[in-house]
Amino acid sequence: MLKLIQSNRELTALLAIVALFGLLGAMDSQSFSFQTLGMIFGSAQILMLLAMGATLVMLTRNIDVSVGSITGLCAVSLGVLLNGGVGLPLACLATLGVGILAGLFNGVLVAWLRIPAIVATLGTLGLYRGLMLLLTGGKWIEGLPAGLKSLSAPVALGISPLGGLVILLLLAMFWLLSRTAFGRSFYAVGDNLQGARQLGVPVNRIRILAFAINGAMAALAGIVFASQIGFVPNQTGSGLEMKAIAACVLGGISLLGGTGSILGAVLGAYFLTQIDSVLVLLRLPAWWNDFIAGLVLLAVLVFDGRLRQALDRNLRRQKYARFQPKKTPESARPTSSEARTTRRMNANKSGVL
Amino acid sequence: MNVGLINGVKRYGWELALFGLLVMEILLFGIANPRMLDANTLLFSTSDFITIGIVALPLTMVIVSGGIDISFGSTIGLCAIALGVLCQAGVPLPLAIGLTLALGAGCGLLNAALILYTGVNPLVITLGTLYLFGGSALLLSGLAGATGFEGIGDFPTAFTDFANRVVLGLPVPLLIFLCAVLFFWLLMHRTRTGRNVFLIGQNARVARYGALPVSRTLFALYGMVGLASAVAAILMTSYFGSARSDLGAALLMPAITAVVLGGANIYGGAGSVLGTALATLLIGYLQQGLQMVGISSQVSNALSGALLILVVIGRSASLNRGLIRSVFQRYRARWSASSPSLSSK
Known about the structure:
The structure holds two protein chains of two kinds.
Chain A: H1 2-7, H2 10-27, H3 34-59, H4 67-83, H5 88-111, H6 117-136, H7 146-150, H8 161-179, H9 181-191, H10 193-198, H11 203-229, H12 240-250, H13 262-281, H14 289-320, H15 329-332, H16 336-347
Helix pairs in contact in A: 2-13, 3-8, 3-11, 3-12, 3-13, 4-5, 4-6, 4-11, 5-6, 5-11, 8-9, 12-13
Chain B: H1 2-11, H2 13-32, H3 39-44, H4 50-64, H5 72-88, H6 93-118, H7 122-143, H8 157-162, E1 166-167, E2 170-171, H9 172-190, H10 192-202, H11 204-209, H12 214-240, H13 252-261, H14 273-293, H15 297-319, H16 321-344
Antiparallel strand pairs in B: 1-2
Helix pairs in contact in B: 2-14, 4-9, 4-10, 4-12, 4-13, 4-14, 5-6, 5-7, 5-12, 6-7, 6-12, 9-10, 13-14, 14-15
């Protein structure tokens, strides 16, 4: 069971989702239905898109804390373009372009100018937020055309056109990341940069590409936001960057790069949104929200960390078993303090301290 | 003497550059608006931003040790709300302040305990506690019946006057900041504990093999971040006159920016307390100065982001000088190799 979870880390997020639905069903049986599932999917789309983008960046052992600002910038540029009389398809394309450019800039800062990712994106977090506010002059954008809002109206099975796009993107990226050499190179870069370079992976190009796709995803999230809400407030997207990272971590994507699947990230995003909706359905006040999210996140992290340590210890014991002298029970048992030290060493093998 | 001077310039090069930038910035704003050069304005406008520095100082030590703490923003909110709730419940003020400080330290210690227990990346753990502490703050303020925007008010005037009082010609928050700079400078650069922090940041495993008290040091570091957050929470509550759960959220990014701008390596092993202190003043006066010149806070947001990027690019370029030269030479060689072949075709 533990082995299964360890090798399929997205199962933790899935288990959490099922458990939460189970709780909802037990407390209040009529509110749980297929409709609830779809409703939560509707409100989870923004976070899902961001989590998909963040997955790529985190797989290459980077982090992007500027996605919230990119989302806001893109939502605002979409609004400004639409209210300026540009047609919907063209405006959407231009918005995507803005997102990709913003992501490319992040990628260039990290890959070519060698700035640590968290520092570079911290800078662009402020920069893009400032650009966004410059574009609007600090005002909200209202009166978006009805064509935009119809993009997130349900069409079939309670799924909107944009929702369908999210599912398609998820499937495409899942296939890309798990089945193609191009997709695997994201894992290679994050797992071992030097090794990837020697395998002939264009390391810098992959890293820049990860940031650019992340920017495109943030742009899509901005479009979804504008079409769902119908107006663009000033604080659009702020705080989403941390939520996206939390969703990825919940879904088993390691900040140390090279492990995790995109499915896990999306399930993590779904779970984080589900907490909000379930609280509403259970008629609990909204202030429980972050508290529960934090508790679950920490529980998953502690469980995961302990599990990984145990597996590492096992592996190490197997590896060094043949060097151990044939033991008498007395001498083979290390003193407790010695065992303690080795365990600590193992714990910090990934150099995370 | 001369050699000593040169050594000093080399050793404190980044701090001197920051100091130069700070002076230049104040003079530039002074040209645009002479009110900026007034000593009183310079002193008393610090109260608006100096809490950034108070949390950034211990955060520098955490980052130098190879960790990071992003939960302090929520810790500040939690401590502020706790202080408000305690005061509302009629707990005497000194006791309430003591309990708040203990709560802050407890939050920091919890971070350290989780990081050491699980061996998971500190960024991830503190992301979890960011939500946990932030959620607890919301929960507490919700249970106490305070709305998000007003927060908990009606503190005794003795308390709300505290942050506006002047001692020795300095406003109290600035005075606390200066004491903290002195304390952390001594701790970081003049004690064995400080050396240990650098060593842990360079290589935690070697530090462990070298029998350095790694766990104890980390507990102390994260505990100090929590304690500093509690101090910042008390100062901000006193300054604004109300306790809100989102008091600290706006401090998160500026404080990390101050640490990075101050010359700390985000991967650990290098950093300076003085640099962080100067960077705090640089960021704070940039915001204040832009406000005084009449530029909206939106543009100043973008400008401080751009400043961070430019400064870091400059630093990165000076650190990777050899690499840049080799890339440049490679491109030149390729260009000169390809151009004859083009012309021969």
